[in-house]
Design brief:
Layout (H helix, E strand, L loop, with lengths): L2 H43 L4 H13 L2 H26 L7 H18 L5 H30 L3 H23 L31 H5 L14 H18 L1 H11 L1 H6 L4 H16 L4 H8 L10 H11 L4 H24 L4 H39 L2
Helix pairs in contact: 1-15, 2-14, 3-8, 3-11, 3-13, 3-14, 4-5, 4-6, 4-11, 4-13, 5-6, 5-11, 8-9, 8-14, 9-11, 13-14, 13-15
């Protein structure tokens, strides 16, 4: 082939790659608009103006600084949860046990936060965060050990361990580590079922002072904290691990084709084990924003559901670390906006749930359609290129 022919081929490939990248970027936006259009039917049925409802969602979510801060606060645990699920997905494992892993991570972090005293903050806080990661990794050890050694499917074991974690946490909080020193105001009622408060040296500072430098003044009740920055940094770290390290190459190879990976000298079982423990360690950090940056103690009503929401975040974010950040922010917006339309527009909670479900379904379907289209077009282009003289 002549140099001119090679240059023409290269130009075609670059043009095709650009076209597919644009299509890949635009498809989630189209999917969200489609989901909003379908949800509008439900709004019309219950007698609401869809344009007014969506306008209220936007104005309520972005009209004040504390509302925007609420979106970021709600997105923080979802970033960690989505990353935990995505690491498992990348290696071909379905870690549906993030729910239980983050509860165990929150327990171990809480214990390290109140039981260890006298340490400076720059030592105590990292130690507590590591304890949370360790708790998640330990809870992930059993299902991956059973997977590697006995061939037990991880979905079954992680679902069972989610329930086990919930019940064990209740036992540990109520019967073993309950704070008996609580003072009941007025002598009436009963103390909260909670563990002792975490030392101030292990609390995560909020972002108020840092944002004030840029002229953004948040009210005292805004709970956004430095774990948001930690989640973004972790997403960058996961991206680097997946795409710039030998282990990341092994992980993606095993996820794509375990048999081919084994032929290339990679031991899939070892990669499964390491990746799942990493997924569990990330899952152990999910609850720390609430624990260390908001409540300051672990109680029997500690927020739950982040693990299952993380599955949706990972799917919407297409298992991309940066896509997961955007997906978590989308879910944070939907949560905040959903509250606004319930209060101001009297829209039932079920309508918000329908919208959220439609967005998840639409983006997942759009992603698969685009993926198949791109693959088909690339095969056609390769066939045409080989047919050229």
């Amino acid at each position: 082939m002549t140099p001119g022919g090679k240059s023409l081929k290269l130009a075609r490939r670059l043009k095709g790659a650009t076209k597919y990248a644009i299509l890949d970027a635009v498809s989630p936006i189209v999917a969200v608009l489609f989901a909003m259009a379908v949800a509008s039917i439900a709004l019309v049925i219950i007698g609401k103006n869809p344009f007014q409802v969506y306008a209220t969602m936007v104005s309520f979510s972005f009209g004040r600084a504390d509302s925007v801060a609420s979106i970021f606060f709600k997105a923080t645990p979802l970033i960690f949860s989505g990353l935990a699920v995505a690491v498992g997905f990348r290696v071909g494992l379905f870690n549906i046990g993030v729910e239980g892993q983050y509860l165990m991570g929150a327990f171990l972090a809480s214990w390290a936060g109140f039981a260890i005293k006298g340490l400076p903050g720059y030592v105590h806080l990292p130690l507590v965060i590591l304890a949370g990661a360790l708790g998640g990794a330990l809870w992930a050890f059993v299902p991956i050990w059973l997977k590697v050694k006995r061939g037990v499917h991880e979905v079954i074991t992680t679902i069972m361990l989610n329930h086990t974690a919930f019940l064990l946490l209740h036992y540990l909080i109520f019967d073993v580590f309950m704070d008996k020193s609580q003072v009941v105001v007025g002598g009436a009622g009963s103390p909260r079922v909670r563990m002792p408060p975490i030392e101030l040296s292990a609390r995560v500072p909020n972002l108020h002072d840092a944002l004030a430098v840029f002229g953004i003044n948040l009210p005292a009740h805004a709970a956004v904290n430095w774990l948001l920055i930690g989640g973004i940094a972790l997403a960058v770290g996961v991206w680097y691990l997946l795409w710039r390290t030998p282990f990341g190459l092994e992980l993606r190879t095993v996820g794509h084709n375990p048999r081919a990976a084994e032929t290339a000298g990679i031991r899939p079982q070892v990669v499964y084990f390491k990746a799942f423990l990493l997924s569990g360690a990330v899952a152990g950090l999910v609850g720390l924003s609430d624990l260390l940056g908001y409540f300051g103690y672990l109680d029997i009503d500690f927020p739950r559901g982040y693990g299952f929401a993380g599955i949706a975040v990972a799917l919407v974010g297409r298992n991309s670390p940066f896509g997961i950040i955007l997906a978590a922010l989308l879910f944070g917006f939907l949560s905040r906006g959903g509250l606004g339309i319930q209060v101001l527009e009297r829209v039932p909670m079920e309508t918000y749930v329908i919208l959220q479900g439609l967005i998840i379904l639409s983006i997942v379907v759009a992603s698969e359609v685009v993926r198949r289209y791109v693959r088909a077009q690339q095969k056609k282009e390769e066939a045409a290129a080989h047919a050229e003289p």
